[in-house]
Task: structure prediction
Amino acid sequence: VQLVESGGGLVQPGGSLRLSCAASGFTFSSYDMSWYRQVPGKERELVAAISSAGGRTTYADSMKARFTISRDNAKNTVYLRMNSLKPEDTAVYYCNAALRLVGYWGQGTQVTVSS
Result:
């Protein structure tokens, strides 16, 4: 099983990024997918989630208007489009796959929002 995040980097405040998470080794289309983020010294927090077929999405309140989660089950990939980025969005962003009691995590990708 592998979840490989990409697309992170350094961006100026107000900028945009699109994160990708490529999955392999399990039946991607059966799993709900989520993005979490974590900063040093704080708990990992949910950013956004999408159901297995993509018909239902959930967002943290502070990100609902700026972030969009999507998935392509044909490509075994989940995306996170982030607009109007703020310095407080700086974190390591992790991809998560979940099906009942089974869960997998990626290694994370760093997003730094700074001028």
Remarks:
- The two ends are 37 Å apart (CA to CA).
- The mean pLDDT is 96.
